[in-house]
Specification:
The protein is an alpha/beta fold. It is built from 13 helices and 12 strands.
């Protein structure tokens, strides 16, 4: 019966305790570092917060797996904990990784600095050009890593080619699905081996916790869990409680995020002071038709450049009144930031510009405010800049 539930029903009911804990409609916070020994024979089965297996964790694991049609899932202390732990599970010193050339700055730094320091090699790929990937293969290539919508340029690579390429060459396919969220896109259905999330963003949706998630096969999640148990990136039970609460409204929030971002992107696209808008929901986006085919909605993320460059961008950031100037994304509040000084500040300026990320690029995480108010506020700010 549960396998036939609609997405919105799974958001609310998947993973919830049956019978309910002492009759509580909402699973309580199990603020206990350890639990009584009950005959476990494996270290990884001991009930302990660091092992991510308290009642607050296990309910989330079932829920997250249900949302992306995975066999199993795992929550972590942050999105980077999910990404780094999974990469360190799949890769060993001497292995080689193919990674999309435009990634979240933290992931790119992890690949180019930390993994490289561990003896893990890499090459960056153009995710929109599958014909070029095979030339980068090596005998030690083990995995391919992409983002479903890239941060911050909202590129949509050939996401269907990635798992097919991985299977043909014995690679593990990994995708960061944070930007679309499971509401808009389910990568495992396309054949991806692992779906990753910064649950800080849309899954939680309220800018009050940091968390991550991994969704995959039972065997892969067991491997990632064992690695995480040693690295220690466990999620606090109170954060797990808030994440579970936030997930229940994901569908409702994403409907508004999708609709408002599209309307705002259209308004910006037509504005005479805007040089260009990056949003896959616009027909002008290079991968619009692909995004229409793959995604239920185009998410709440967009970015744009102003014709006045960095000076105009700074003016705009000071002039808007509804958006909050802050890093991160996926919150009910609209957030604006310049990736050059936040998410991609760690990149060399020339490297950043080479990827198409100008110093004046503005990234917008569209919240759930009335879109007419957002458009009016953006247009008023642009009129002053």
């Amino acid at each position: 019966m549960s396998e036939n539930r609609q997405f919105e029903t799974s958001l609310v009911h998947a993973g919830e305790a049956v019978p309910r804990h002492q009759g509580a409609v909402v699973t309580p916070i199990y603020q206990s570092a350890m639990f009584e020994y009950s005959g476990e024979t494996s270290y990884h089965d001991l009930k302990y917060i660091r092992l991510n297996n308290t009642p607050n964790h296990t309910g989330l694991h079932v829920k997250l797996a249900a949302l992306e049609n995975g066999e199993a899932a795992l929550v972590t202390a942050s999105g980077m904990a999910a990404i780094s732990t999974t990469l360190l599970t799949v890769l060993r010193p001497g292995d080689h990784l193919l990674a999309q050339n435009c990634l979240y700055g933290g992931t790119r730094d992890l690949v180019t600095s930390d993994l490289a320091d561990m003896g893990i090699e890499f090459d960056f790929i153009d995710a929109d050009n599958p014909a070029s990937w095979e030339s980068l293969l090596r005998s030690n290539t083990k995995a391919i890593y992409v983002e479903s919508m890239t941060n911050p340029l909202l590129e949509v690579g050939d996401l269907e080619a990635v798992p097919a390429f991985a299977k043909a060459h014995g690679l593990t396919s990994m995708i960061d699905n944070t930007f679309p969220s499971p509401y808009n896109f389910k990568p495992l259905a396309l054949g991806y081996d692992i779906s990753l999330h910064s649950a800080t963003k849309y899954l939680n949706g309220h800018a009050d916790i940091v968390a991550g998630a991994v969704v995959s096969s039972t065997e892969m999640i067991e491997r990632v869990t064992h690695r995480l148990n040693h690295l220690g990136g466990s999620l606090d039970p109170h954060a797990a409680f808030l994440l579970n609460r936030g997930i229940k409204t994901l569908a409702l929030r994403m409907v508004q995020h999708n609709a408002s971002a599209l309307q705002l992107a259209e308004a910006l696209h037509e504005h005479p002071k805007v040089a260009g808008v990056n949003y896959p929901g616009l027909p002008s986006h290079p991968a619009h038709e692909r995004a229409r085919r793959l995604f239920k909605g185009f998410s709440g993320m967009l970015s744009f450049d102003l014709k006045g460059g960095l000076a105009a961008a700074d003016c705009f950031m000071k002039a808007v009144t509804l958006p909050i100037v802050a890093p991160s994304l996926g919150s009910v509040e609209t957030l604006v930031t310049r990736p050059a000084v936040t998410s991609h500040a760690g990149l060399d300026p020339d490297e950043r510009r080479g990827l198409g990320i100008s110093d004046g690029l503005i990234r917008v995480s569209v919240g759930i405010e009335a879109c007419s108010d957002l458009v009016q506020d953006f247009e008023a700010a642009l009129s002053r800049c």
